[in-house]
Design a protein that fits this description.
alpha+beta, four-stranded antiparallel beta sheet, about 35% helix, about 110 residues
């Protein structure tokens, strides 16, 4: 059912030239449907970029831990999955453009 709905949304988007804001905790769905991805934690934007930038070259520690906690077909089932990064001890800094269109919130250590 989920796959059918995603195909329908994608078809409607392409046929009508629509943009779509899709909010999900399901990274597999995000990877399938998104052109651009924004990673947020507690209402704060931590990283944003193209799907490939965020999924293949994550820069923020939280994004890295989030992606590391998702099992894949190549995941070693004898090992525990990664856990999510703890909240930073530092203050949130500003967004910095790490690569064209790939923005990451820096952490200020005071």
């Amino acid at each position: 059912m989920q796959a059918q709905i995603l195909r329908l949304l994608k078809a409607l988007q392409q046929r009508n030239g629509l943009g779509m804001l899709f909010i999900s905790h399901d990274l597999a769905v995000v990877a399938q449907i998104a052109d651009r991805v924004a990673v947020m934690r507690q209402g704060m934007l931590l990283e944003t970029g193209t799907r490939d930038q965020v999924f293949l070259s994550p820069r923020h520690p939280y994004t890295k831990s989030l992606l590391g906690a998702v099992p894949t077909l190549t995941t070693d089932r004898s090992q525990p999955l990664a856990t999510l990064a703890a909240a930073s001890d530092g203050a949130p800094g500003s967004l910095v453009e790490e690569a064209p269109g790939h923005w990451v919130r820096c952490i200020l250590h005071v």
